[in-house]
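ok trying again, last paste got cut off:
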Amino acid sequence: MKIAFLIHNMEAPSCRYRVLQYFPYLKQQGVEVSVHLFKHKLIDKWKFYATLGKYDLIFIQRKLFHPVDFWYIRRKAKKIVYDFDDAVMYRSAKSKNPHSFSRRIKFAHMMKRADLIIAGNEFLKTKVLPHNSNVVIIPTSIDLSRYSLKEDLPNGGRITVGWLGSRSSLRYLRSLIPAFENIFRKYPNIQLKIVCSEFLDSPHLPIIKKSWSWDEEEEDLKSFDIGVMPLSNDLWSKGKCGLKILQYFSVGIPAICTPVGMNRDIVEEGVNGFWAMTAEEWEEKLSILIENHTLRKQMGREGREKVLEGYSIQAIAPRLLSILKQVAEKNKF
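nice, full thing came through this time. structure:
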Protein backbone atom coordinates (compact mmCIF):
# COMPACT_ATOMS: atom_id res chain seq x y z
CA MET A 1 0.00 0.00 0.00
CA LYS A 2 1.33 3.43 -1.01
CA ILE A 3 0.20 6.45 1.00
CA ALA A 4 1.00 10.11 0.37
CA PHE A 5 0.74 12.26 3.52
CA LEU A 6 0.06 15.94 2.87
CA ILE A 7 1.12 18.20 5.75
CA HIS A 8 1.84 21.90 6.22
CA ASN A 9 4.95 21.85 8.43
CA MET A 10 7.38 19.14 9.54
CA GLU A 11 7.78 20.83 12.95
CA ALA A 12 4.12 21.53 13.71
CA PRO A 13 2.88 19.47 16.70
CA SER A 14 -0.20 18.27 14.81
CA CYS A 15 2.00 16.95 12.00
CA ARG A 16 4.54 15.34 14.32
CA TYR A 17 2.01 13.67 16.60
CA ARG A 18 -0.73 12.78 14.12
CA VAL A 19 1.40 11.84 11.09
CA LEU A 20 5.18 11.64 11.33
CA GLN A 21 5.47 9.54 14.48
CA TYR A 22 3.48 6.74 12.82
CA PHE A 23 5.93 6.33 9.94
CA PRO A 24 8.28 3.80 11.62
CA TYR A 25 5.34 1.52 12.45
CA LEU A 26 3.71 1.88 9.04
CA LYS A 27 6.99 1.14 7.24
CA GLN A 28 7.56 -1.87 9.49
CA GLN A 29 4.17 -3.16 8.39
CA GLY A 30 5.09 -2.85 4.72
CA VAL A 31 3.39 0.47 3.94
CA GLU A 32 5.22 2.72 1.49
CA VAL A 33 4.86 6.24 2.89
CA SER A 34 5.87 9.61 1.51
CA VAL A 35 5.41 13.05 3.01
CA HIS A 36 4.65 16.19 1.00
CA LEU A 37 4.34 19.82 2.06
CA PHE A 38 1.44 21.81 0.67
CA LYS A 39 2.36 23.76 -2.43
CA HIS A 40 1.79 27.50 -2.74
CA LYS A 41 2.56 28.34 -6.36
CA LEU A 42 -0.21 27.47 -8.77
CA ILE A 43 2.02 25.57 -11.21
CA ASP A 44 3.59 23.54 -8.36
CA LYS A 45 0.16 22.62 -7.00
CA TRP A 46 -1.26 21.36 -10.28
CA LYS A 47 1.90 19.42 -11.14
CA PHE A 48 1.73 17.68 -7.76
CA TYR A 49 -2.00 16.97 -7.96
CA ALA A 50 -1.41 15.25 -11.30
CA THR A 51 0.81 12.65 -9.54
CA LEU A 52 -1.75 11.63 -6.90
CA GLY A 53 -3.10 8.71 -8.90
CA LYS A 54 0.02 6.64 -8.23
CA TYR A 55 -0.90 6.36 -4.54
CA ASP A 56 -3.49 4.02 -3.06
CA LEU A 57 -4.51 6.67 -0.56
CA ILE A 58 -4.00 10.39 0.06
CA PHE A 59 -3.89 11.44 3.73
CA ILE A 60 -4.56 15.18 4.20
CA GLN A 61 -3.69 16.59 7.60
CA ARG A 62 -5.73 19.60 8.71
CA LYS A 63 -5.60 21.88 5.66
CA LEU A 64 -8.82 23.15 4.11
CA PHE A 65 -8.46 23.39 0.33
CA HIS A 66 -10.26 25.76 -1.98
CA PRO A 67 -13.09 23.85 -3.71
CA VAL A 68 -11.35 24.17 -7.09
CA ASP A 69 -8.14 22.65 -5.70
CA PHE A 70 -10.03 19.88 -3.97
CA TRP A 71 -12.06 19.13 -7.09
CA TYR A 72 -8.82 18.30 -8.91
CA ILE A 73 -7.40 16.37 -5.95
CA ARG A 74 -10.60 14.32 -5.77
CA ARG A 75 -10.45 13.68 -9.49
CA LYS A 76 -6.87 12.38 -9.36
CA ALA A 77 -6.77 10.56 -5.99
CA LYS A 78 -8.03 6.99 -5.61
CA LYS A 79 -8.99 7.43 -1.94
CA ILE A 80 -8.81 10.43 0.40
CA VAL A 81 -8.56 10.46 4.19
CA TYR A 82 -8.82 13.81 5.96
CA ASP A 83 -7.43 14.14 9.51
CA PHE A 84 -7.86 17.11 11.85
CA ASP A 85 -7.32 17.91 15.51
CA ASP A 86 -8.45 21.55 15.64
CA ALA A 87 -11.75 23.31 15.01
CA VAL A 88 -10.61 24.40 11.55
CA MET A 89 -14.15 25.31 10.53
CA TYR A 90 -13.93 28.27 12.95
CA ARG A 91 -11.50 31.12 13.45
CA SER A 92 -9.10 30.84 16.39
CA ALA A 93 -10.07 31.95 19.90
CA LYS A 94 -8.28 35.29 19.52
CA SER A 95 -10.77 36.36 16.83
CA LYS A 96 -13.76 38.45 17.86
CA ASN A 97 -16.08 36.45 15.60
CA PRO A 98 -15.35 32.69 15.43
CA HIS A 99 -17.58 32.12 12.42
CA SER A 100 -16.09 32.22 8.95
CA PHE A 101 -18.13 31.77 5.78
CA SER A 102 -15.12 30.73 3.67
CA ARG A 103 -13.93 28.18 6.24
CA ARG A 104 -17.41 26.72 6.55
CA ILE A 105 -17.75 26.35 2.77
CA LYS A 106 -14.32 24.72 2.38
CA PHE A 107 -14.95 22.40 5.31
CA ALA A 108 -18.36 21.24 4.09
CA HIS A 109 -17.09 20.75 0.53
CA MET A 110 -14.18 18.55 1.65
CA MET A 111 -16.12 16.56 4.24
CA LYS A 112 -18.76 15.56 1.68
CA ARG A 113 -16.13 14.30 -0.77
CA ALA A 114 -13.55 12.57 1.44
CA ASP A 115 -13.70 8.77 1.74
CA LEU A 116 -13.03 8.93 5.47
CA ILE A 117 -12.54 11.66 8.06
CA ILE A 118 -10.46 11.13 11.20
CA ALA A 119 -11.43 13.52 14.00
CA GLY A 120 -9.31 14.13 17.08
CA ASN A 121 -12.27 14.26 19.49
CA GLU A 122 -16.04 13.95 19.79
CA PHE A 123 -16.73 17.66 19.29
CA LEU A 124 -14.92 17.62 15.94
CA LYS A 125 -16.77 14.46 14.93
CA THR A 126 -20.13 16.19 15.49
CA LYS A 127 -19.08 18.87 13.01
CA VAL A 128 -18.40 16.26 10.33
CA LEU A 129 -21.54 14.13 10.71
CA PRO A 130 -23.97 16.55 8.98
CA HIS A 131 -21.81 16.16 5.85
CA ASN A 132 -20.44 12.61 6.01
CA SER A 133 -21.15 9.58 8.20
CA ASN A 134 -17.76 8.03 7.43
CA VAL A 135 -15.96 9.56 10.40
CA VAL A 136 -13.98 7.96 13.23
CA ILE A 137 -12.27 9.37 16.31
CA ILE A 138 -8.56 8.75 16.73
CA PRO A 139 -7.11 10.81 19.58
CA THR A 140 -3.68 12.37 19.45
CA SER A 141 -1.20 9.84 20.79
CA ILE A 142 2.14 9.78 22.59
CA ASP A 143 5.08 7.49 21.86
CA LEU A 144 5.77 6.25 25.39
CA SER A 145 9.11 4.78 24.32
CA ARG A 146 10.37 8.39 24.23
CA TYR A 147 9.41 9.09 27.84
CA SER A 148 10.14 7.52 31.22
CA LEU A 149 8.63 8.29 34.60
CA LYS A 150 10.04 11.19 36.57
CA GLU A 151 12.15 10.02 39.49
CA ASP A 152 10.52 10.30 42.90
CA LEU A 153 12.58 13.16 44.28
CA PRO A 154 12.60 13.96 48.02
CA ASN A 155 9.69 16.07 49.20
CA GLY A 156 10.63 19.70 49.74
CA GLY A 157 12.43 22.50 47.95
CA ARG A 158 11.13 24.32 44.90
CA ILE A 159 7.88 23.21 43.29
CA THR A 160 7.63 23.91 39.58
CA VAL A 161 4.31 24.53 37.88
CA GLY A 162 5.00 23.88 34.21
CA TRP A 163 3.47 24.75 30.85
CA LEU A 164 4.76 23.49 27.50
CA GLY A 165 3.28 24.63 24.22
CA SER A 166 3.30 26.88 21.18
CA ARG A 167 3.24 30.67 21.23
CA SER A 168 -0.30 30.70 19.83
CA SER A 169 -1.51 29.11 23.09
CA LEU A 170 0.31 31.51 25.42
CA ARG A 171 -2.80 33.69 25.64
CA TYR A 172 -4.49 30.98 27.70
CA LEU A 173 -1.62 30.92 30.17
CA ARG A 174 -1.48 34.72 30.33
CA SER A 175 -4.98 34.81 31.79
CA LEU A 176 -3.76 32.76 34.77
CA ILE A 177 -0.79 34.94 35.75
CA PRO A 178 -2.77 36.80 38.48
CA ALA A 179 -3.79 33.45 40.00
CA PHE A 180 -0.18 32.23 39.91
CA GLU A 181 0.95 35.46 41.56
CA ASN A 182 -1.56 34.89 44.39
CA ILE A 183 -0.30 31.33 44.77
CA PHE A 184 3.30 32.56 44.97
CA ARG A 185 2.35 34.91 47.83
CA LYS A 186 0.93 31.90 49.67
CA TYR A 187 3.68 29.46 48.68
CA PRO A 188 7.00 31.29 48.09
CA ASN A 189 8.64 27.97 47.12
CA ILE A 190 6.75 27.70 43.80
CA GLN A 191 7.89 28.87 40.38
CA LEU A 192 6.39 28.85 36.89
CA LYS A 193 8.32 27.29 34.01
CA ILE A 194 7.36 28.07 30.43
CA VAL A 195 8.74 25.90 27.62
CA CYS A 196 7.99 27.68 24.37
CA SER A 197 9.47 29.92 21.66
CA GLU A 198 8.03 33.02 23.37
CA PHE A 199 7.45 33.85 27.02
CA LEU A 200 5.48 35.84 29.59
CA ASP A 201 6.75 38.15 32.33
CA SER A 202 5.60 38.95 35.83
CA PRO A 203 7.25 41.21 38.42
CA HIS A 204 5.56 39.23 41.20
CA LEU A 205 6.29 35.64 40.15
CA PRO A 206 9.54 33.77 39.37
CA ILE A 207 9.31 32.49 35.79
CA ILE A 208 11.81 30.13 34.18
CA LYS A 209 11.95 30.63 30.42
CA LYS A 210 13.12 27.66 28.36
CA SER A 211 13.13 27.40 24.58
CA TRP A 212 11.47 24.21 23.38
CA SER A 213 13.69 21.51 21.90
CA TRP A 214 12.69 18.07 20.64
CA ASP A 215 15.83 16.55 22.18
CA GLU A 216 15.26 18.22 25.56
CA GLU A 217 11.48 17.85 25.76
CA GLU A 218 11.52 14.84 28.12
CA GLU A 219 13.98 16.57 30.47
CA ASP A 220 11.85 19.72 30.51
CA LEU A 221 8.69 17.76 31.26
CA LYS A 222 10.41 15.97 34.12
CA SER A 223 11.44 19.32 35.61
CA PHE A 224 7.72 20.03 36.23
CA ASP A 225 5.95 18.98 39.42
CA ILE A 226 2.50 20.05 38.17
CA GLY A 227 1.44 20.55 34.55
CA VAL A 228 -1.23 23.03 33.55
CA MET A 229 -3.43 23.38 30.45
CA PRO A 230 -5.75 26.40 30.66
CA LEU A 231 -8.19 27.08 27.83
CA SER A 232 -11.06 29.43 27.14
CA ASN A 233 -14.56 28.00 26.76
CA ASP A 234 -15.13 28.75 23.07
CA LEU A 235 -15.71 26.92 19.80
CA TRP A 236 -12.03 26.85 18.84
CA SER A 237 -10.91 25.50 22.22
CA LYS A 238 -13.52 22.73 22.15
CA GLY A 239 -11.61 21.27 19.21
CA LYS A 240 -8.36 20.97 21.19
CA CYS A 241 -7.12 17.41 21.71
CA GLY A 242 -5.20 17.65 24.98
CA LEU A 243 -1.64 17.07 23.75
CA LYS A 244 -0.08 19.03 26.64
CA ILE A 245 -1.84 16.84 29.17
CA LEU A 246 -0.68 13.66 27.43
CA GLN A 247 2.87 14.98 27.54
CA TYR A 248 2.62 15.71 31.26
CA PHE A 249 1.12 12.29 31.94
CA SER A 250 3.78 10.54 29.87
CA VAL A 251 6.41 11.35 32.52
CA GLY A 252 4.08 10.92 35.51
CA ILE A 253 3.15 14.55 36.17
CA PRO A 254 -0.40 15.39 37.37
CA ALA A 255 -2.34 17.98 35.41
CA ILE A 256 -4.76 20.78 36.14
CA CYS A 257 -6.84 21.84 33.16
CA THR A 258 -9.84 23.76 31.97
CA PRO A 259 -12.48 21.05 31.37
CA VAL A 260 -13.15 21.98 27.74
CA GLY A 261 -13.02 19.65 24.75
CA MET A 262 -10.80 16.60 25.04
CA ASN A 263 -9.46 17.79 28.40
CA ARG A 264 -12.58 16.42 30.09
CA ASP A 265 -11.92 12.95 28.70
CA ILE A 266 -8.20 12.77 29.50
CA VAL A 267 -8.20 14.32 32.96
CA GLU A 268 -10.35 12.43 35.44
CA GLU A 269 -11.24 14.84 38.20
CA GLY A 270 -9.53 13.79 41.43
CA VAL A 271 -7.89 10.72 39.83
CA ASN A 272 -5.04 11.91 37.60
CA GLY A 273 -5.57 15.64 37.98
CA PHE A 274 -8.10 18.40 38.56
CA TRP A 275 -10.48 20.62 36.61
CA ALA A 276 -10.50 24.40 37.12
CA MET A 277 -12.58 27.08 35.41
CA THR A 278 -12.32 30.19 37.58
CA ALA A 279 -9.22 31.84 39.06
CA GLU A 280 -10.40 30.75 42.48
CA GLU A 281 -10.63 27.12 41.35
CA TRP A 282 -7.15 27.29 39.84
CA GLU A 283 -5.75 28.58 43.12
CA GLU A 284 -7.64 25.91 45.09
CA LYS A 285 -6.48 22.99 42.92
CA LEU A 286 -2.90 24.24 42.72
CA SER A 287 -2.81 24.56 46.50
CA ILE A 288 -3.95 20.96 46.96
CA LEU A 289 -1.16 19.60 44.77
CA ILE A 290 1.50 21.98 46.08
CA GLU A 291 0.82 20.81 49.62
CA ASN A 292 0.59 17.07 48.89
CA HIS A 293 3.70 15.43 47.41
CA THR A 294 2.17 11.94 47.73
CA LEU A 295 -0.95 12.97 45.82
CA ARG A 296 1.16 14.47 43.03
CA LYS A 297 3.03 11.19 42.67
CA GLN A 298 -0.15 9.09 42.78
CA MET A 299 -1.99 11.21 40.23
CA GLY A 300 1.03 11.28 37.94
CA ARG A 301 1.18 7.49 37.90
CA GLU A 302 -2.54 7.33 37.14
CA GLY A 303 -1.96 9.72 34.27
CA ARG A 304 0.76 7.52 32.81
CA GLU A 305 -1.62 4.55 32.95
CA LYS A 306 -4.28 6.60 31.17
CA VAL A 307 -1.90 7.27 28.28
CA LEU A 308 -0.76 3.65 28.20
CA GLU A 309 -4.31 2.33 27.94
CA GLY A 310 -5.79 4.64 25.34
CA TYR A 311 -3.49 7.38 24.11
CA SER A 312 -0.16 5.73 23.33
CA ILE A 313 1.11 5.25 19.80
CA GLN A 314 1.63 1.61 20.72
CA ALA A 315 -2.13 1.25 21.23
CA ILE A 316 -3.32 3.51 18.41
CA ALA A 317 -0.93 2.78 15.52
CA PRO A 318 -2.38 -0.69 14.76
CA ARG A 319 -5.90 0.77 14.74
CA LEU A 320 -4.86 3.56 12.38
CA LEU A 321 -3.25 1.09 9.99
CA SER A 322 -6.35 -1.12 10.02
CA ILE A 323 -8.57 1.86 9.17
CA LEU A 324 -6.30 3.04 6.35
CA LYS A 325 -6.26 -0.47 4.86
CA GLN A 326 -10.05 -0.62 4.94
CA VAL A 327 -10.30 2.66 3.08
CA ALA A 328 -7.70 1.70 0.47
CA GLU A 329 -9.09 -1.76 -0.17
CA LYS A 330 -12.84 -1.10 -0.17
CA ASN A 331 -15.09 0.89 -2.42
CA LYS A 332 -16.53 2.53 0.67
CA PHE A 333 -15.35 2.63 4.28
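cool. The two ends are 16 Å apart (CA to CA). The chain is about 40% helix and 15% strand.
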